């Protein structure tokens, strides 16, 4: 599933290609991926323009010039591509929105969606999300307030979108590793110094991942060589049985609250 760094990368690259260009064609190949009847979805989008793309957590919010919004959540397996039929990867598309010769393709929307909503409806959805770690207002004091009083495992806290928006399985594991904490560490047992270390690690991992184009390495455009560059920087996620880059021990895969979890049992601790 694309997480905050991937969605931020998508936002930047898509914005460079389609803003303020009239929508000339819309194709819906899977009606379950949209929220209204297909013909209405198409007619409401034709001849409008996307004037701004906002990211909130794992969502992309496309602002149309008529005040409407396209709210996109890619969920598990969802991807985007901007280009033409000639350079589109051999993947099934569920929704296609064309801007003259350039088309925005939504791919792999088995669970994901592209919903046409009012601004108020979008606010109701996004209003349930917690704050963002990359928000300039997120400082150590605000982070302390988020963590204090919480109970349960560290990973459960990090992936809870109502507490902190945008972090999923892979970045939760990488953040825990950088902080030297087990994903199963109990949040209620973390002292102030440990929470500050967690804060710095969370900011650091997400910032570096955004700068490197995230983890998912399918290009967004034909000439895109940046997307997915952070994949090679992962220390523990999806590296079961490999050597820990920090201590040389073996990275372990486990299950925590029904989620696969990767960590180094030597480098990571309860505190």
From TrEMBL:
EC number per UniProt: 3.2.2.23, 4.2.99.18
SUPFAM superfamilies (UniProt xref): Glucocorticoid receptor-like (DNA-binding domain), N-terminal domain of MutM-like DNA repair proteins, S13-like H2TH domain
Ranges where the Formamidopyrimidine-DNA glycosylase catalytic domain occurs: 2-144
Residue span, FPG-type domain: 235-269
UniProt keyword DNA damage, yes or no: yes
GO molecular function list: 8-oxo-7,8-dihydroguanine DNA N-glycosylase activity; class I DNA-(apurinic or apyrimidinic site) endonuclease activity; damaged DNA binding; zinc ion binding
One Pfam entry name: H2TH
Catalytic activity: Hydrolysis of DNA containing ring-opened 7-methylguanine residues, releasing 2,6-diamino-4-hydroxy-5-(N-methyl)formamidopyrimidine
GO biological process per UniProt: base-excision repair
UniProt keyword annotations, A-Z: DNA damage, DNA repair, DNA-binding, Glycosidase, Hydrolase, Lyase, Metal-binding, Multifunctional enzyme, Zinc, Zinc-finger
Signal peptide: none
Entries under InterPro entries matching the protein: FPG_cat, FPG_N, H2TH_FPG, Ribosomal_uS13-like_H2TH, Znf_DNA_glyclase/AP_lyase, Znf_FPG/IleRS
This protein's name: Formamidopyrimidine-DNA glycosylase
Biological source species: Paenibacillus glacialis
Record lineage: Bacteria, Bacillati, Bacillota, Bacilli, Bacillales
């Amino acid at each position: 599933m694309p997480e905050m760094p991937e969605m931020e990368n998508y936002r930047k690259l898509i914005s460079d290609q389609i803003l303020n260009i009239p929508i000339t064609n819309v194709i819906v190949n899977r009606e379950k991926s949209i929220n209204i009847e297909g013909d209405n979805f198409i007619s409401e989008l034709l001849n409008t323009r996307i004037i701004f793309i906002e990211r909130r957590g794992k969502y992309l919010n496309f602002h149309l010039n008529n005040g409407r919004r396209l709210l996109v959540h890619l969920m598990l397996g969802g991807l985007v591509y901007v280009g033409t039929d000639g350079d589109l990867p051999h993947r099934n598309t569920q929704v296609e929105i064309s801007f003259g010769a350039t088309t925005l393709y939504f791919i792999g929307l088995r669970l994901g969606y592209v919903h046409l909503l009012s601004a108020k409806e979008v606010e109701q959805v996004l209003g349930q999300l917690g704050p963002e770690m990359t928000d300039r207002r997120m400082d150590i004091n605000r982070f302390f307030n988020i963590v204090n009083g919480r109970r349960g495992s560290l990973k459960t806290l990090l992936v809870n979108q109502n507490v902190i928006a945008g972090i999923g399985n892979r970045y939760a594991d990488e953040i825990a590793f950088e902080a030297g904490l087990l994903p199963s560490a109990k949040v209620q047992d973390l002292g102030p110094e440990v929470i500050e270390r967690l804060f710095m690690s969370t900011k650091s991992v997400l910032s570096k991942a955004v700068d490197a184009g995230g983890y998912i390495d399918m290009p967004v455009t034909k000439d895109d060589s940046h997307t997915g560059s952070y994949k090679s920087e992962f220390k523990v996620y999806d590296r079961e049985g490999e050597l820990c880059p920090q201590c040389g021990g073996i990275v372990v895969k486990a299950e925590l609250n029904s989620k696969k979890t990767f960590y180094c049992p030597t480098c990571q601790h309860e505190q």
